[in-house]
Amino acid sequence: MLAKLRPMLVNVRPKLVKVRPKLVEVRPKLVMLGPILVTLRLMLVTLRPMLVKLGPIMVKLRPMLVMLRP
Predict the structure, then answer these.
(1) How far is CA 8 from the centre of its chain?
(2) Which residues cross the membrane (predicted)?
(3) Domain chopping of the chain, boundaries
(4) Three-state DSSP class for 16?
C-alpha cells in the first residue's frame, strides 16, 4: 500500500511547496472572513425556521408563477 502511495506523495510534495506561500497570503483574508462567515451562519440559523414556514406557501405559489411566465 505504502509502496503505491509513495510516488504519489513525491508528485504532490512540489505542488504543496508551491501552494504554501499562497496559503500564507490567503490566511489573513480568511481571518478577516471568519467573523463574516459566523454572522452569515447565525443569519441562516435564524432564517431557517422562517424558510420552513414559507416552504409550503412557496410550493403552492410555484404553479401560479409557472403559469404567469410567458
Answers:
(1) 28
(2) 30-51
(3) 22-70
(4) helix
